[in-house]
Write a structure and sequence with these properties.
single chain; 34% helix; four-stranded antiparallel β-sheet; alpha+beta; 1 helix; elongated
Length: 154
């Protein structure tokens, strides 16, 4: 192999090495850019979750019907996923209550009737003038009452 051929081969190898370095640098730059954009989006998502958790909203519960012995509802106390349940015994119907909840805490109202045969119950949850959940039932307990998803969760 002549000296010129060896130099040419080395020159080609040098060009290949430089090209590989350029490609690696470009790929590295793209990865860094992708991470920066991704972390920025992640940061935005975290900010949105923080805002949603701290945001408050009002709902109005309403219970109508006959023979309701007790009404249980989320009144805003406790943690978002472990809300304290407030109770009204022997409520006068129709019953209505507006509460302020926070973040992802689900609005919920559960009328309870001990009279298996005579109860006829309806409940609803309203947010900003729009009914977001309603249910009707007869018998011992309305089937779970009304439980809705927090309007700030979605």
């Amino acid at each position: 192999m002549s000296h010129t051929t060896r130099n040419f081969r080395n020159f080609r190898d040098l060009r290949a090495v430089r090209r590989a370095r350029t490609v690696r640098a470009a790929v590295s730059a793209a990865v860094v850019l992708g991470l920066a954009v991704g972390l920025g989006a992640c940061s935005e998502t975290v900010d949105q979750v923080d805002k949603a958790v701290n945001e408050t909203y009002e709902v109005t519960y309403e219970v109508t019907g006959t023979s309701v012995d007790e009404i249980q509802f989320h009144g805003g106390g406790g943690k978002a996923m472990e809300p304290e349940i407030e109770t009204v015994k022997s409520p006068t119907l129709p019953w209505r209550k507006t509460v302020t909840l926070r973040g992802i805490m689900p609005p919920a109202v559960m009328p309870i009737a001990l009279d298996e045969n005579g109860a006829d119950i309806a409940c609803s949850i309203t947010h900003k003038g729009k009914v977001i959940k309603e249910a009707k039932g007869e018998g011992l307990i309305t089937a779970g009452g009304c439980v809705a998803v927090s309007p700030v969760a979605g």
